[in-house]
Amino acid sequence: DAAASAGPKPFNDWQTDTIAVLETNLDDCTAEILGHCVQQALDAGALDVFHTPIQMKKNRPGVLLTILSVTSDADKLTELLLRETSAFGVRRYTAERRKLQREMAEVKTPYGRVAVKLGKLNGKVLQAAPEFESCKAVAAEARVSLKQVYDAAHLAIQSSH
């Protein structure tokens, strides 16, 4: 049997979940209203919010406003889009996601200890990123720029892996 001789199927320990994708096209919404809606969606629990430039009918420039959310928040965020923008409708669908196993760690920098997020697949670190709020707090405490702390944290991450 050819399938049996190919060896075992590779195992990946990524996480899988299903999220709601909400989107609407807008060509008559001001930048101020759009920015306000993005912040409100994030405050209401959206996983991510973004807008993409698009070309709409009658050659109008517009934006595609997209909200990613857990499925249980989709109705609440749909209502927010309809209430806070000029949208007359919202498209909604679900998407399956694959995510790295996430783990928090700390690295030592010359300015203090910084929290970092590690993304692992099958026990191997594939991604590592300093946490913004941690870097911000360390920079304020050490009275140095946020960029200096980020750079030091990245260096510490590289030297620890």
Low-confidence stretches: none
What would you call the shape?
A: globular
Radius of gyration: 21 Å
Q: How much of the polypeptide forms β-strand, as a percent range?
A: 35-45%
Spatial separation of the terminal alpha carbons? 41 Å
Molecular structure report:
There is one protein chain. Helices cover 34% and strands 42% of the residues. It is α+β, with helices and mostly antiparallel strands and 161 residues long. The mean pLDDT is 93. The protein is globular. Strands 2-3-1-4 form a four-stranded antiparallel beta sheet, covered by helices on one side. A three-stranded antiparallel beta sheet has the order 5-6-7. A hairpin with a 3-residue loop joins strand 2 and strand 3 (60-70). It starts with a helix and ends with a helix.
Summary?
This protein is of the alpha+beta class. It has five helices and seven strands, in the order H-E-H-E-E-H-E-E-E-E-H-H. The longest helix has 15 residues, at 146-160.
Compile the SSE list and pairings:
Elements: H1 2-5, E1 15-26, H2 31-43, E2 48-56, E3 60-70, H3 74-84, E4 91-99, E5 101-109, E6 112-121, E7 124-130, H4 132-142, H5 146-160
Antiparallel strand pairs: 1-3, 1-4, 2-3, 5-6, 6-7
Helix pairs in contact: 2-3, 4-5
